Amino acid sequence: MLTIYDWVYGITTFSVVFLSIIAGLIALSMFTAASQRKYLAAWKPLLIALLLFAAEEIIGALKIFGVYSNPWITHVLVSFVLVFFIAALIRQIDITRGCHE
After folding, report:
1. Alpha helices for the chain (secondary structure H)
2. How distant, in Å, are the alpha carbons of 67, 70, 81, 97, 98 from that of 61?
3. To the nearest 10°, the Cα dihedral for 71, 76, 81, 85?
4. Who has the most CB within 10 Å: 2, 9, 24, 29?
5. Rounded distance, CA 40 to CA 98, Å?
């Protein structure tokens, strides 16, 4: 018999997966807008980081339900999220200073 905690945890995990898929679709749709405008150039690595974060959340949900368990992949994905986030931050600083033309 499942407890209330198990039900809440399962529903929360399903909602995280659903919202991660929606965030990934929004990021993919915004990628073309970021390619067309120079002042949105920092969005490209930021959107890639968002897609990787969504993938990490989905893999985490699969790990919780016992479908897929690979302990190192979640750490690698988070590292790449951080790398792309730092790249977006550096690119935005360059755009703000006027270095990116």
Report:
1. 4-36, 43-64, 73-97
2. 9, 12, 18, 41, 42
3. 140
4. 24
5. 13
Give the separation between CA 29 and CA 14, rounded to whole angstroms: 23
Mean pLDDT within 14-39: 82
Q: Where are the domains of the chain?
A: 4-97
- What is the DSSP code (8-state) at residue 36? H
Tell me the pTM. Answer: 0.77
- 49-78 pLDDT tens trace: 988 888 888 888 888 777 877 778 878 989
Greater model confidence, 95 or 35: 95
Say which residue the tokens 């929004």 belong to.
26
Name the amino acid, one letter, at 15: S
Phi/psi for 70 (5° steps) reads -135, 105
Render the burial of 1-32: b for 16+ CB within 10 Å, e for the rest.
eeeeeeeeeeeebeebbeebeebbeebeebee
